[in-house]
Amino acid sequence: MTTHQTPLLTVENVVKHFDISGGFLDQLAFKGGIHLEKTTVKAVNNVSLFVNKGETLSVVGESGCGKSTLARVILGLYRPNSGKIFYDGQRIDHLSHEQWLPYRRKMQMIFQDPYASLNPRKTVRQTLEEPLRFHNPKMTAQEAVDKVAYVMEQVGVDPAWIGRYPHEFSGGQRQRISIARGLILDPNFIVADEPVSALDVSIQAQILNLLMDLREKHDLTYLFITHDLSVVRHISSRVAVLYLGTVCELASAKDLFESPRHPYTRALLSAIPRIGEKKAKHIKLKGEVPTPVNLPSGCVFHGRCVYARDRCRKEFPRFNELSNSTFVSCHGVEEGWDLG
Amino acid sequence: MSHLLEVRDLEVKFALRSGDITAIDGVSFNLDPGERLGIVGESGAGKSVTGFAIINLISKPGYISRGSIYFEGNEISAYSLARMRKIRGNRISMIFQDPMMTLNPVYTIGFQMIETLQAHRNISKTQARAIALDKLKKVYIPSPEKRLSQYPHELSGGMRQRIIIAISLLADPAIIIADEPTTALDVTIQAEIMDLLQELCERDRMGLILITHDLGVVSQVTEKIAVMYAGKIIEYGPTETVVHHPVHPYTIGLIGSIPGSIEPGKDLKQIPGMMPTLTNIPPGCAFNPRCELAADICTKKTPVFEEKQNGIMAACHMK
Q1: Cys-Cys with B284: which of A214, B92, B299, B310 at CB 3.0–4.6 Å?
Q2: What residue of B is the nearest CA neighbor of A205?
Q3: Cα dihedral across residues B87, B91, B97, B98: positive or negative
Q4: Mean pLDDT across chain A, nearest whole number?
Q5: Which CATH code, of 3.40.50.2020, 1.10.10.10, 3.40.309.10, 3.40.50.300, is assigned to A9-335?
Q6: DSSP strands (E only) in chain B
Q7: What's the pLDDT tens digit per position in A58-72?
Q8: Against a cut of 0.90, is the pTM above it?
Q9: Distance from CA of B307 to the nearest CA of A (A)
Q10: Mutate which of A157, A169, A202 to test chain B, going by most B C-beta atoms within 10 A?
């Protein structure tokens, strides 16, 4: 992949499979004699993408497509089975726990459910101070409190509430506190895993505005994981569409929404209910999403694609760059079939 | 009484140790055969309680404290539990949010469908099975015979929600109340389920009450919208008009909050603050602390719900 600048984060051919075969007895299979059979969930399959400094790359897809796994692999919470991840030019996927530490300060995560991601037994101060103290052992108590108060103000939570517990806050405020926790170490890169899906629309707008403000103010780069396409269109510079652990299409938000190329992207976009627009005919997909345990051969989407031909069933499509820095993984687009 | 369903000045209270709280406060609306009504609002606005109240599924400590509900001209809110059972699931049925939770995991789909039918009608198992099969076909479930002997865990979320729709159709109801039927599903599945509901309403002249927080979904499926805030309907009118020319500042804010309603990257219009809890509803108009138009009168007097413009009813002093 060619880019004009060095990307902040590069993911190259990352694969993450989970072994769910269980114990010895669970693995026994009797097809044509007795042998052991491994069952693996193929969550992320050969994903490559890059995130430039200051941009927001959104990863979208339906449940079970591997978006959260990808986020966790990038942050080193899971180790990839193969592939490479570079942060600011340094390879980070193979680092030991100690070697990871300096990167943890720079790469932070915001989780989906503000009810589950904050420790109910810790006050806001304890939650926010812990990472600060851990990464800056020499910091004085006063400095730490000042920093916590500063960050709370940044995210719009009154610093006077520093001694309160999570249950005393509403969902939106909790999400602000979890954003504060992500910001407290002054990171450059934030992975936000569905940060607004648990919130009501009016609160969702407040949090999205906050995230966009913070990006400007603190020069942040986001990897935004979500299933909500209208949020994606609003906040992202570029979008990667994931299906069964494979990137179907990677393009600028504008290009992707205005002229989607991959048949899956088209079906997905046509399904978004848009307020005030009379219903456009949405593209019906046949069948159901296969499980990531038994991946289809060839193109992972072929079973549901109305344009699928023989080649799609046999051969995995390459991830090709089209002229306008749009990447698409589809035989049909590559060969210029009539895709409706 | 010419309407299929008429809800008049409905009030539901929950008796708590600290005193009664009002969950819905004076809600009124009508539904005609084949009509699709959307009830929208944020969590805690009282949308689901409204749905439950229609078929008298409010459980203690909640109770209907005022108002009446007429169905086909009969006041069903005065019915005994036994009489209500003949209506519920039979003439008016309800679809719930989570398809993983509403099917019994230890019985087959067929068993659950036949059980439902036999509860409402005096028919044989074979007849019930034939009706069940027919309904499964109606909701476009592939290989319906096979599904009857399957358990819920063997099916995907979208398929389960279809089965639930099929179950709700078993007794050919006049009204379906769908409470967030697609919130737990992916967008491609959501689109299919919504198409299906709309088709059923059009073909069988069934009334639909769609309860959801998603204005996008409501605006595509329904003909009328009721917007709820803190237990009251604050705006009601034809979907098209409400979406394009909303009157109430809350509706305006809600529509502005949706990403996609404005140019990407620009700040979304946000409503400051959050919805009050039911124990702590501000005096006057409940929306006044968050409203940019709020004047003195808004903190003192509850606005009247009245006709404003283009056939929209709204409760606001300033419009």
Answers
A1: B299
A2: B257
A3: positive
A4: 89
A5: 3.40.50.300
A6: 5-16, 19-31, 36-40, 62-71, 74-75, 92-95, 175-179, 207-212, 224-229, 232-238, 305-307, 313-315
A7: 999 888 888 989 999
A8: no
A9: 22
A10: A202
